[in-house]
Every structure is written in structure tokens, then in C-alpha cells.
Design goal:
Layout lengths: L26 H16 L4 E3 L9 E6 L11 E13 L4 E6 L7 E8 L1 E7 L5 E7 H14 L14 E3 H4 L10
Antiparallel strand pairs: 1-2, 2-3, 3-6, 4-5, 5-8, 6-7
Bound molecules: nickel (II) ion (NI).
Length: about 180
Amino acid sequence: MTVREILKMGDPRLLRVAEPVTEFDTPAMRELIADMFDTMHAANGAGLAAPQIGVNLQLVIFGFKQNARYPDAPQVPETVLINPVLTPLSDEKEEGFEGCLSVPGLRGSVPRFTQLRYEGVDQFQQPISRDVDGFHARVVQHEVDHLLGVLYPMRIADFSKFGYTEVMFPGIDPNDDD
Ligand code: NI
């Protein structure tokens, strides 16, 4: 088990556009993906993008049954998504609070597309195509933004809904301090 260091906002490596993955199911890729899951689980994250551990590849993971940081969120299947393409299925957006392991201790309300299709491949280069909505759609948009060098505070429309988790969500276990 290898928990990697998660880069924090301000690190220029979080602002890069990630490169497409061209190698699949190699020892290096298997190790990278295992480390990403170890890192995400150790931090109780809902998702993690490779650039957050300094690897500039179009690779994100996400999913959970129950998440301590988002106790009211419906479960999202554990997914490895590589070289993703997102297609909104309507123009409708909704606001919802997000945190980020690269922005510890804070939460902000971010407008996201309500419904979208995500396509890409998994770690074995098998195609993935899913139509999703709600929190699942939000998580995917958040993670794929990391591949574009975008962190959620850059998407906030109403900064009165941006603040410290411990202040705005006192019910969240302080050990899950993002
Ligand atoms: Ni994030």
C-alpha cells in the first residue's frame, strides 16, 4: 500500500492540461492506479485525479458506497476512467457543495451540469459510456476538471457559499478534514 502525497492548490502542477494515456495494463499503470486508490481511500476522498499526485495523465478514479466526507451522497460505482470525454445531456446546471483533497478544509458551491454522458476507457482499455446525473455527474465533472488544470474554486459563481468545512458543515467528522 502506497499513499502518495496529494498536491495542494497553488502548486503549478495542478494547473497543467494532462496528456492522454497511451499504455494500458502495464506494471507501471497497475502500480499507479493501485496507489491512487490507496491515496483516495486514506483521505476518504470521493475521487482522485492523477495530476493531484503529480502524474500528468488523463486518468481519474472515483466512487464509494458510503463516504464520510459526503454522508448524504448516493453511492457511485468505483470507476477508473481514462482519456475521458464529457457530453452534457441538457443545458441545465445545479449548484452543489464540493470539496477537494487539493484544497483541504474548504467547501464551495459550484454550478455543474445536471445530466451528462461520460465516455472513455478503463484500465484494461475497455470502453466506458455512462449517462449519469446528480452527485455522480458532479463527481465526474470535478475530477475531469483536474485534467484541464481547473480546480473547483475557479468555477464558483457565488463566493458567499465558499468557506471552511468545520464552519459550514459542523457535522462532518474533523478527521475527514479533506
Ligand atoms: Ni479535487
